Amino acid sequence: xxxxxxxxxxxxxxxxxxxxxxxxxxxxxxxxxxxxxxxxxxxxxxxxxxxxxxxxxxxxxxxxxxxxxxxxxxxxxxxxxxxxxxxxxxxxxxxxxxxxxxxxxxxxxxxxxxxxxxxxxxxxxxxxxxxxxxxxxxxxxxxxxxxxxxxxxxxxxxxxxxxxxxxxxxxxxxxxxxxxxxxxxxxxxxxxxxxxxxxxxxxxxxxxxxxxxxxxxxxxxxxxxxxxxxxxxxxxxxxxxxxxxxxxxxxxxxxxxxxxxxxxxxxxxxxxxxxxxxxxxxxxxxxxxxxxxxxxxxxxxxxxxxxxxxxxxxxxxxxxxxxxxxxxxxxxxxxxxxxxxxxxxxxxxxxxxxxxxxxxxx
Length: 362
Known about the structure:
Elements: E1 11-19, E2 24-33, E3 38-42, H1 49-57, E4 64-69, E5 72-73, E6 84-88, H2 99-109, H3 114-127, H4 143-155, E7 161-165, H5 173-190, E8 193-198, H6 201-207, E9 210-215, E10 218-223, H7 225-230, H8 235-240, E11 245-253, E12 258-260, E13 266-268, E14 280-285, E15 291-293, E16 303-314, E17 318-325, E18 329-336, E19 348-353, E20 359-361
Parallel strand pairs: 3-8, 3-9, 6-7, 7-8
Antiparallel strand pairs: 1-2, 1-4, 4-5, 9-10, 11-12, 11-14, 12-13, 14-20, 15-19, 16-17, 16-19, 17-18
Helix pairs in contact: 2-3, 2-4, 3-4
C-alpha cells in the first residue's frame, strides 16, 4: 500500500454501481478523494450517498465497479481487512463498559500490549476533549460527549480513512453546530481522510474541503463549498444547496451579457457565463444577493424589478422577505438587519441585483 503524501488518492471509485431488486442506488460512479481531505457526500434521502459510503467501508458489495484505498483494490475485502473505520449516527457504545474500555475495545481484540493500549486511549480521549472521563459509563455522558467517544473509538485504531455516516443527526441544533467545529478541528489535527455523509447543507459547507452533491445515484456537482454555492450549474443543486431565485430569459447580446425576461425587462449577467451559444437560459440569484428599496429610493443595481412584499419574517440577524413581482413571480430576499429600514407586508418595493451575482443553471 502507498504511503501518505504519495499523490495517490485516498479513495478511488471506478464505475461503481449498486443495484437492488427494484432500483439502481448508485450508477457507474467515478470519484477520487485526495489524501488528508475532509470530503462530504451531500444529498437528499435515496440519492445513493450512504450506499456509496457503505461500499467504501465494505458493508455493501458493489454490483460492479472497483473500490481502491490508497491505490489498493479492496473491492472484495471484508470491512475488518480495510484500513477504514466508521462512525455511525447511533453511537453503538457498550453501556456496561467504561469510556476507557469502549475506546480500547478494538485494540484489545488485536491483543496489543496493555501499556500501549492505555497510552493510545489516553491520547485519543485528549484529542476529543474527554480527558478524565475514562472511568465513566456512556449513560453518564451527554449525547455530544457520547458521539466524541464513538469518534475516539474509531480514531484509536489509526485508520487511514474515517467514514462518518450522518454522525451528528441525533444531536440537537446547538450540539450539532459545536460538533461541526470539533470534527473539523480533529480532522485537521490527525490529518487523515474524513468522508462525511449528510443531508444537511450547512453541515457540509461548514466542515468539508470538497463537497459532492449526489442526485439519483450520481454526482451532479463537485467542488469547494463556495464554488458550488456561487455556481451550482443545475437546478437541483441550486435548490438543494441553499435557496435560489430562478428566472427564464432570452439572450440578446452575449458579448454584453444582456438578457430579457418574458415581458421584455432587460437583465444583465457576466458575459463570460454566456459563451455556450444558448439563446434561452435559466438565471439564478441567491436571496442574500438581492437588495430592496422603496420605489422613491432608486437602487444603483443594473437589474431591477418592482414588487409587493407579501411576507416579512424577522430572524434576528436578518429579515427574510417574500416579494411578488410581475416579471419573475415570487422572489425570496434576505436582508441583514443593520439598522436600515425594514419593510412590511403590502409595501411596494424595488428588487435589485448585480450582474456578477447571477449564475446559470440547466
